[in-house]
Amino acid sequence: MRPKITAVILAAGRGERAGKGLPKQFVSVLGSPLFIYSVKAFLSAGVVDEIIVLVPRGWVVYSEKELKRLRGNKPVKVFTGGHRRQDSVYKGLLHISEDMEYVVIHDAVRPLVTPGLIVRTVEGALTCGACVPVVMPPDTVKEVGRGVIKRTIPRERIGLTQTPQAFSCKILRKVYQKGPPRRPVTDDAQLIEVIGKRIKAIPGERMNFKVTWREDFCVLEAHLKRSTRF
Ligand code: C5P
C-alpha cells in the first residue's frame, strides 16, 4: 500500500517585494487568488492525502471561503502560519495527521507548479527519503561583493532549488524537533543537508518560478492565458 502523504502549502508570507499592497499570494490573477493555483495543482496531482495551507493571521476565513469553490476529494485545512518561513513550516508540521509518512512542502507563490512535477518529487522522496527539484542557471554565475565582481563560479556546479520539496516525515520532524531554526532558512532541504542525509535532485521546471516582483505577475498572466490546464 502507498504511504500516506501530506502537502504543506506555505502562504503565510508578507509578500512585500511585489508592491501590490496585500500579500502577493492573495493577489487576484485571472479571477483567483494566487495561492489557489498551487492548491489546484496538488488536487490534480492526486498523490497527496491531505493539504494543509498556512496563511497570515486574519486570512484564515477568507482562504477557507476561496478553497470551498474548488472541486477535490481531499481535505484542505487552513491554519495561521508563523513569522518566518521556517515558523510556518513548523506550524504546518504540528497539524499533519498522525498517520502521514511523507510531507511535500510547497511555496504558494509558485503557482505554475505542475501536477507532473509534484508526482516526480514525491516519487523521488519515496525512493531516497528527500527530493528537491533543481534548475540550472542559464547565466554566467559570479560571486559579487560590495558592488564588485569577485570571481566566476562554474555554473555546472550550481543548481537553483524550487519547491515542491518532499521528505519523509521522520527526517523532517528530526530537523524541526527542537522548534524552528534560529538562523535564516529559505528552504527545507538546507536543514537536511547539514545532518548529512542524501537528497535526491530531480529536474525542476523553468515556469515553476517564484512570483516575487511586480513584473512576475505579467509573465504569470500571459502564461495562464495560453494554458489549457487552468
Ligand atoms: O518570502 P519568500 O518569497 O521566500 O516566501 C516563500 C514562501 O513562503 C511564500 O509562499 C510565502 O508565503 C511563504 N511564507 C510563509 N510564512 C512566512 C514567510 C513566508 O508561509 N512567515
Descriptive terms for the model:
230 residues, alpha/beta, two-stranded antiparallel sheet, binds cytidine-5'-monophosphate
Could you characterize what this model shows?
The chain contains 7 helices and 12 strands. Helix content is 31%, strand content 23%. The model has no long low-confidence stretch (mean pLDDT 95). The protein has helices at residues 34-45, 60-68, 85-95, 115-128, 169-175, 189-193, 214-226; strands at 5-10, 28-29, 32-33, 50-55, 76-80, 102-107, 130-135, 141-145, 148-153, 160-161, 165-168, 200-203. The strands form 3 sheets. Strands 1, 4, 5, 6, 7, 10, 11 and 12 form an 8-stranded mixed β-sheet that branches. The radius of gyration is 17 Å and the shape is globular. Strand 4 (50-55), helix 2 and strand 5 (76-80) form a beta-alpha-beta unit. The protein is α/β, with parallel strands linked by helices and 230 residues long. It binds cytidine-5'-monophosphate (C5P).
Précis, in short:
The chain is of the alpha/beta class and 230 residues long. It has helices spanning 34-45, 60-68, 85-95, 115-128, 169-175, 189-193, 214-226; strands spanning 5-10, 28-29, 32-33, 50-55, 76-80, 102-107, 130-135, 141-145, 148-153, 160-161, 165-168, 200-203. Cytidine-5'-monophosphate (C5P) binds next to α3.
